[in-house]
Every structure is written in C-alpha cells, then in structure tokens.
Design goal:
This protein is an alpha+beta fold. It has 2 helices and 6 strands, in the order βββαββαβ. The chain binds iron/sulfur cluster.
C-alpha cells in the first residue's frame, strides 16, 4: 500500500497484514462552522464560503492522521471523528 507504515498494519491473529484505513468524517448537524478544525489541520481541512469544513476524500496517513486527531479533539461540538476500517 502506498505510503503505509509498518505500524499501520494489524491482525496478529493469523499473521496476515491488513491495512487500517482511516478517514476524517463530520456530523454536519452538530458542526457550527466555527473553523477551529481547519486552523489545526490546514493541510487537510478547507473551509467553504460559509465557514464550514470541507474534508479530504483520501485516507489519513502519517502526519495528516495526527493532525486529524488533534482537530477531532479540539472540536467544541464533537462534530468531527476519525473512522477506521
Ligand atoms: S471545529 Fe467542529 S464545529 Fe468547528 S467547524 Fe470544525 S467540525 Fe465544525
């Protein structure tokens, strides 16, 4: 997998390497468009003309994943989360 780190692989049960994909998701009902997430993760999150976040459609990796977690933790409305598949 492109850009994956060794630490991104799981499944020790049968020793099969399986990628853990993470994506940034939003609950649009909870979001108030305050923009703190875009301030904390500017490489990942843009704001639309009304101040609401526009999220990346790609999997989170490395520094982007850490920035996404910081944005999730800082969201005052708990509208952001990282989903892992
Ligand atoms: S920090 Fe939370 S409430 Fe503010 S714009 Fe981002 S997702 Fe919405």
């Amino acid at each position: 997998m492109r850009g994956a780190r060794r630490a991104d692989f799981v499944d020790e049960g049968d020793k099969t390497e399986k990628a853990e994909k993470a994506r940034l998701r939003i609950d649009p009902v909870s979001c108030e468009g305050l923009g703190m997430c875009a301030h904390l993760a500017p490489r990942l999150i843009d704001l639309d003309p009304w101040g609401f976040p526009v999220l990346p459609l790609t999997d989170l990796e490395g520094p982007d994943r850490r920035a996404a977690v910081r944005a999730v933790r800082a969201c005052p409305r708990r509208a952001l989360h990282v989903s892992v598949e």
